[in-house]
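Field guide to reading this record: the first block holds the primary sequence, the second block holds the structure written as C-alpha cells, and the final block holds curator observations. Each block starts with its own label. This record concerns Cupin-like domain-containing protein, catalogued under organism Duganella dendranthematis.

BLOCK 1 — SEQUENCE
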Amino acid sequence: MKPIAEIDCQHSRQLRADPSQPLPDEILHSPVPLVLRGLVADWPLVQAARRSPLAADAYLRRFYRDATVLATHAPPETGGRIFYNDDLSGFNFNSQMVRFDQVLDALRAHLDHPAPPTLYVGSTSIDTCLPGLRAENDVNFGARDPLASIWIGNRTRIPAHYDVPDNLACVAAGRRRFTLFPPEQLANLYVGPLDFTPAGQSVSLVDLHQPDLARYPRFAAALAQAQSAELEAGDALFLPSMWWHHVEGLTPFNILVNYWWRQSPDWMDTPFNTLLLGLMSLRDLPPAQRAAWQQQFDHYVFASDDREAPLDADGARALRAQLLRLLSR
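BLOCK 2 — STRUCTURE
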C-alpha cells in the first residue's frame, strides 16, 4: 500500500506561526487525504493519554455528567471486527444504551487482558456526553461549525465505508491505522446492502486482514490503489468526502475525536437520498430509457457549464415541497 501524504504540523511554519488561526483552506479543501502529524499534540487529553490509559480515563471523567451512550459489545472471537454474522442475516455484536462511565469501567477492567471482548462507543456528540471537553481540546475551523464526535474503545476493526461530509479525525489516545481507498474503487470493494448496515453506512464485505480474493477478485485492484498510515496520539487525518476508510484501533484503549462538515450550503439534501430514489425509479428501466435519463442527469445535475439558473434556499424549498407531494401520492 502507498503511504498517505503527510504534513509535520510541529514544524510547519504555516500551521505553527499562529495556532489561534483556523486551519487553512489548503488543508480543509484538499482533494486527497492528508496525515497531519502532531496537529493536536498540545491537547490536555493527548498529554494525559501519553502518560497512560488510566490518566486519559481520569481526564475524561472530569467532564462526565450522567450521559448515556450506545455501546457495542462483541465476543473475543470476532477479533474486534464490527461486522455481520456469517450468513449476513444479522450482526456479530450487540448494542445497548449504558452510562458512559460504565464503558470506561469496562475498558479499564480489560486493559491487561490478552483477548478481551470488543468494547466500542461510536459517533457520540462530545458536547452532549462530555460537556466542557472541547473548551480544552478543540480545533479551530474558523467560520465552519462542524459536528464534533468522540469514539472510544479497545482493539476494534471498522470495515471500509465512506462518509458524505469532509472529516478531520484526531487521535486523542492510543494508536490507529487508517487504510483508505479512493471513491472510484467502489466497484472493487464489494459493498454490502444499503438498507441493512452495521452502523448506518454500507460497508465493504471484504476482510482487509484476510481478503478472500477467490470470492472477491476485484479487491486486488482496490488494494493496488490503497493508502495507509498509522497515527499516534496527537496526530490527525483529513479525509475528503466519499473516500472509503477502514479504521483499526491498535491498543487496549483508544480515543478518536472527529469533526464532520460539508462544503455545500445547509439547505442542500444529502445525495444519498437521491441515490435511494434512483434505485427505486431508474435502475430497472429498459436500457434505452435508462440512457435517456442519464442524459437528463448529465444536463441538469452533472454538467460543468452554467446553462441552468443556480439553485438557492428558496428554490430548494420549493423543489422539496414538490417532491414530498409526489412521494405522498
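BLOCK 3 — OBSERVATIONS
The mean pLDDT is 93.
DSSP finds eleven helices and 14 strands in the chain.
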